[in-house]
Amino acid sequence: MAPAWRFTEDEQDVVTELMNMGVGRAAASFSRLVDDEVVLSVPLVRLADMSEAEAAFAASVPEVLAGVMQSFEGLITGSAALLFPGERSLELVRAVIGEDMPAEEISELEQETLAEIGNIILNSCLATIANVLKTELHSSLPEPYHAGRAGLTRLLGGNDSIIMLVQIDFSLKSRNLEGYLAFVIDLRSAEAFRSAIAEYLEELSG
């Protein structure tokens, strides 16, 4: 028997669509922040246990990461992280606060700016999940993360958790950046998450 978190193809499609809706909402807010069109897309969503997630991180996530993390609770309980390649995070910050600011000042504002970006994107995704699945999710304030990918899964959660790794492509001005969303879901709430998605699919087909 498959674990509760092993979604069917239809359920996986719903999760991908929820993420696309969430980052679509975030793109509108992000566009206002940088005063330019921002296009965000979700090319890939993967669900994995901790060992599978570590292998996925090793294969696709850069060695050095910068971003933010926050916890959430409700229908699903866990934590979420928005991560960027460490060497590219300053590019994203520069897009928000402007090209003319000296490099040392940009570095000082990096964590604050990434927290603001993370707040927009993470909360847009969580709010979309809550709205579509007719439930409530409450999240903490984002906290900065700047470290290597080694041990990231242990920082995010333990062996009683699953990882939903969401790759995001950013397109703004002349920049094409890649970021990652990692939602760590407590296994005890994974079945409730699946049940809510199944109910949503029933409503669509009814």
Short synopsis of the structure:
This is CheC, inhibitor of MCP methylation. With 206 residues, the protein is α+β, with helices and mostly antiparallel strands.
- What's the architecture, going by CATH? 3-Layer(aba) Sandwich
Number of domains: 1
Q: Major beta sheet, specifics?
A: 7 strands, antiparallel
Give the end-to-end Cα distance, rounded to a whole number of Å.
28 Å
Total number of helices: 6
**Oligomeric organization of the protein chains:** single chain
Q: Name the CATH homologous superfamily.
A: CheC-like
Query: Which CATH class applies here?
Result: Alpha Beta
CATH topology name: Chemotaxis protein chec
| SSE class | alpha+beta
- Percent helix among the residues? 40-55%
What percentage of amino acids are in beta strands? 25-35%
H/E element order? HEHEEHHEEHEEH
Determine the mean pLDDT.
79
Protein described:
This protein is an alpha+beta fold and 206 residues long. It has a single domain, classed as 3-Layer(aba) Sandwich (Chemotaxis protein chec). It is 49% helix and 31% strand. The chain has 6 helices and 7 strands; from the N terminus they run H-E-H-E-E-H-H-E-E-H-E-E-H. It has helices at residues 9-34, 50-60, 89-97, 103-132, 152-156, 187-205; strands at 38-49, 64-74, 78-85, 137-139, 143-148, 161-172, 175-186. Strands 1, 2, 3, 4, 5, 6 and 7 form a 7-stranded antiparallel beta sheet that branches. A hairpin with a 2-residue loop joins strand 6 and strand 7. Helix 3 crosses helix 4. The longest helix has 30 residues, at 103-132. It starts with 8 loop residues before the first helix and ends with a helix. The mean pLDDT is 79.
